[in-house]
Amino acid sequence: MAQRARPLSPFLHYRWLYTNTLSILHRITGVLLSLGFFLFVYWLAAIAGGSERYSRALDVLGSWPAQIVLFGAAFAFCYHLLNGIRHLFFDAGLGFELATARRSAYATAAGAVVLALVVWWTVRAGLGGAA
Amino acid sequence: MSLRSPLRRATGLGSARGGAGHWYAQRVSAVALVLLGLWMVIALATLGGASHARLVAWLSSPVSSALAVLLVFTAAWHALLGLQVVIEDYVTDKGTRTVVLLAVKFALVAAAVVGVLAVLRIAFGAVA
Predict the structure, then answer these.
(1) Confidence at A53, pLDDT banded by 50, 70, 90
(2) ipTM for the complex?
(3) Side-chain-facing half-sphere of A104: CA atoms under 13 Å
């Protein structure tokens, strides 16, 4: 008797919900932040390189492609920070009730956008804005 | 009766040989980064538009240079642990996976050394 083909992996059976959206965003922002780490080291090395080298680095960081990257990094930082704290609460066994988890999810998403705008705006003034 | 050797029982690391060490290190570095990351972002926001001389003066104070070195080290460590999990999940070919893991490890350690040396140069007054 031919056996019916059974699903081998649950991957395609997940519905697209806020839970897996937030989870994959945590990974994506984590990878982006790892790239942002190299940008941060570049900034530190530029300061250590002297004032001339630093003003040249500010020209690079002030250009519009770099500003887009910096906004992405600001959002990634804020999102990963807020969702990371959310996950630390989960690790401690707190906040698993459906209503609580949903509320913290929306708070994380909205908070990340607002916080990213604030961070980008204030830091932008220092990185290239005033150069 | 257990089939595990006394040494295996004593180390308690199981068949994956890693135990909960990786998971735990990720959380420890996460908690440290909440504090260090917030410190750096608040400092950047208040320093907005600062001259090179002012940045050097700020980074060469003992507290800022210590926190900056800790931030570089912890961020590289946390990134390494996180990227390792992502790579192990998505890169299925064993040879490619090993090469990618090595490349990521080398790049992060190199960047961390450059970052720490930059802060130390500033802290010890090597930057005019």
Answers:
(1) very high
(2) 0.87
(3) 18
Q: Count Cβ–Cβ pairs < 8 Å, chain A vs chain B.
A: 96
| Contact flag A48-B119 (C-beta cutoff 8 Å) | yes
**3-state SS, one letter per residue, for B91-112:** CCCHHHHHHHHHHHHHHHHHHH
pLDDT at B1: 62
Instruction: Search chain A and give the residue with CA nearest B86.
Output: A27
CA dist., res. A122 & res. B103, Å (int): 35
- pTM of the complete model: 0.86
Query: Per the CB < 8 Å rule, is A44 touching B115?
Result: yes
Mean per-residue pLDDT for A39-66? 92
Closest by CA position to A119, among listed B100, B107, B45, B4? B45
pLDDT at B45 over 60: yes
Q: Which among B40, B52, B64, B113 is the top mutation candidate for probing chain A, defined by the most A β-carbons within 10 Å of its own β-carbon?
A: B52
Of A41, A54, A84, the CB nearest to B52: A54
CATH T-level assignment (fold) for domain A29-129: 3 helical TM bundles of succinate and fumarate reductases (1.20.1300)
CA of B44, closest CA in chain A: separation in Å? 6
Domain covering B21-123 assigned CATH 1.20.1300.10 in the classification: yes
